[in-house]
Amino acid sequence: MKMNEEQRGWIERAEQYVHEELCRDSSGHDWWHIVRVRRLAVRIAGEEGADVLICEMAALLHDVADAKLNPDHDSGLHKVAQWLESNGVDSKIRDKVLSIIANMSYNGGHNPPMDSLEGQVVQDADRLDAMGAIGIGRTFAYAGWKGHLMHDPNLAPREAMTESEYRQQTSTAINHFSEKLLKLKTLMNTNSGKQLAHKRHLVMEEFLEQFHKEWNAEDDE
Fold it and tell me: Which residues contact 187 (CB under 8 A, 6 or more apart)?
């Protein structure tokens, strides 16, 4: 279904708002992350028969509310809710977008499954951007932003974690692959997401194999 003029206006204003909010971010949750997630969400929504408007709006706004970039989860959601209301977004669409944003983060694997196709689409799109070559780059950008080491062989990956431990404890860029990224392939919701995740997962496995060879001076001459 094509968007009407009012709906296109919502999308255009969301673009401007999110760009202003995230264009200076250096944690890997920047404007270009939004561009990629939006592109993936629109693509997967078309393939899976989801509502493109809701998927695109949620993809655009999702990191404005991210707990990593706000004092807490609730204040981030409140900020997005205020923006949606002040820009005249229909209440049914507003509620659906907020529901997706509220529940799509990984949070150490503690969030419940998404309860709508649109939520599944946007969650898949966001998780796909944490995988593959892009995901590798974002992992090291985030580790630097947090002040974490690239790798410490004496620091084992964390296993069972609370949401607070996942957010606050010190880790490393390399451990992040075991703690989250290599788990994402099995957590995809849609058929389209699963197919893309399989390819991106292989890229990460190949990278880690080469990384550890070089770390131990065991790579081929």
Answer: 127
